[in-house]
Design goal:
The complex is a heterodimer of chains A (322) and B (281). Chain A is an all-alpha fold. Chain A is built from 13 helices and 2 strands. In chain B, helix 3 packs across helix 7, helix 3 runs antiparallel to helix 10 and helix 12 packs antiparallel against helix 13. The chains are: A mainly alpha (322), B mainly alpha (281).
Chain lengths: 322, 281
Amino acid sequence: MHKMSGIVKSLKRNAGGYLFLAPWLVGFFVLTLYPMAYSLWLGFTDYDFTKPDATQWIGFGNYIKMFGKAFGLSQFTASTGEVMRVDPYYLKSLSVTFTYVFASVPLKLIFALAVAMLMNQKLRGVSFYRAVYYIPTLLGGSVAVAVLWRKMFEKDGLINSLLGALGFTNLPGWITNPKYALWTLVLLSVWQFGSSMIIFLAGLKQIPQEYYEAASVDGANKVRQFFSITIPLLSPVILFNLVMQMIGAFQVFTQAYIIGGGTGGVLNSTLFYTLHLYIQGWTYHEMGYASAMAWVLLFIIGVLTAIVFKSSNLWVSYGTGE
Amino acid sequence: MKTRTVIRHALTHLFIITLGVLMIYPIVWMIVSSFKPNNMIFSDPGLIPKAVTLENYVSGWKGYAGTTFGRFFANSLFMCVVAIIGNLISCTMAAYAFARLKFAGRNFWFAIMMITLMLPGHVTLVPRYILFNTFGWVGTYLPILVPKFLATDAFFVFLLVQFIRSLPKELDEAAIIDGCGKFGVFLRIIVPLASPALVTTALFTFLWTWDDFFNHLLYLTRPETFSVSRALRTFVGDAGAVSNWGGALAMSTLSMIPTFILFFSLQKYFVQGITTTGIKG
């Protein structure tokens, strides 16, 4: 009797919370946890979307398929006895994506910080300028801008007619030349620095003006002030932007898909990881392989995020002296 | 001293304006070019058209496969409205539970929610597709819209939790003394007071649904169900097989109008959304 009322009491106490949390909980279990477990399993099978009944457990076959080329393999025997070919393009997609992330994220953050510092002055019209600088970010992820970008950087596109007007000749087709194609996408990413800029700007406003005044009384010049005051005090914000931008950059899809016309572009020069995953899973129906690729992506992002956080002990200071 | 400051400010303004013009030049050029005759678009990098025509809008609006852009716009709008309703209901409910209600396991679930915030969506992609396919949902809006009613956009849950936590607790307590239950407090106190954060949620839900391409590519299979972004992609075609670039630019320009209107009318909510959660870009 006593025990019963205890259970009823605890039910009553918790019911309200779980009732409000119910939609999220259902979403978490059905659309996140279960799919994650399922895709982990799929990654060890040869699941083909067009013939799911023929699915076989192939152990690490998909993972060998991804990285086999690095060890000089062109084919191997899976645990089922079936001969599998290694993926000739996987490593390319990895290198394209890494190049993109390591080029676009630092450039974007540097640019965002520079513009934020420019805006962090007592100037008239700053909020208008901020809005204008945010426009590329606002529209940048859309198909419309990707279409525009492709057309701008084609051989007879806007950029070449501008450069031509300035007297340059022998201009390449930026999108169709494998040497440059990836860099047009890096540029597209750097162009969308608006969110990072707004976050930096909010961070800069938190730094007390007295610090700068005290520093200039002590004879520190602007450069010294930047490295001794701005950077250390802004470091938590830099860390935040770095992590968010990095995670986002690994997952770029729309721009690459539109600019490459649904492919990895010329010589797969813009074969982004997620694009390759999409082509494997949805064009070739190799959904077991696509799942394994997704887990490697999660692993890469997880490890890099952990490294960044670990290293932040060295360069992020939380002592704001409040 | 005074004149030096004036000059310095003037130079800064000049620099910001020049850089700003450079930044938005491609977009302005796109808008202007959509009014140029098709054969003059790429030969003319200037911002003042030599001849103005609406032919691109007329030819673009026709769309393809017998479906006009009117339909595509209506489809996108429909998806946005339903997605906003879903996110407002489900994310606010979850946020209220996390921020205000006491229940066993709250901290555990909150930690899980924060982890899902960072989780790349690709690990759930294939199984979700298989799941929705067994439901027979592929080709409908359900795979895109149903998750919104299950608070899968953890960003908004986080945003709303932060906001609700900042509201004074005394109001809840007063309402409880006046006889309000948990649901009453939610509807009469939390929802009205959290309206700025709700506007931010609605705003970003609109933009993300409007601009989403990947989910539309996966799940929308018939032209009559296409969203604007999905339609634009087919309009542009594979590997540069486009003939009607004027139409593509005209429809691209049109597709940006809702975003522009929302941005300029609700700017402060943008800043709030970006600075509290670091979303997008």
